[in-house]
Design a protein that fits this description.
93 residues, mainly alpha, 62% helix, globular
Length: 93
């Protein structure tokens, strides 16, 4: 799962971001992410949050961020749920 998250973040390098309402603490690992991203350390979660935020700032839409991980996660619902929670947290949903 750790490798999957980091690979997913790398996939987003070629994409841009979009503005989001900044929520205090959105760049921090929290219990919600920990419960969905089992086995991923806080440091890895925060790195992934930072990478996704960098793409958001470059103009990548929330939909593009969610779509980008589908080939990496394939049918792994745990991966998809984790990634969705990360994207939602960064994009302020």
């Amino acid at each position: 799962m750790k490798k999957l998250l980091l690979c997913s973040a790398a996939v987003l390098v070629l994409m841009g971001g979009c503005p989001a309402e900044l929520v205090p603490g959105r760049m921090n690992a929290n219990d919600h992410l920990r419960s969905l991203c089992v086995g991923v350390s806080d440091a890895e979660l925060e790195t992934t949050l930072s990478v996704v935020d960098a793409y958001r700032e470059e103009g990548m839409s929330r939909a593009a961020a969610l779509t980008a991980v589908i080939p990496t996660c394939e049918a792994d619902m745990d991966c998809l749920n984790c990634w969705t929670a990360i994207v939602d947290q960064v994009y302020g949903k």
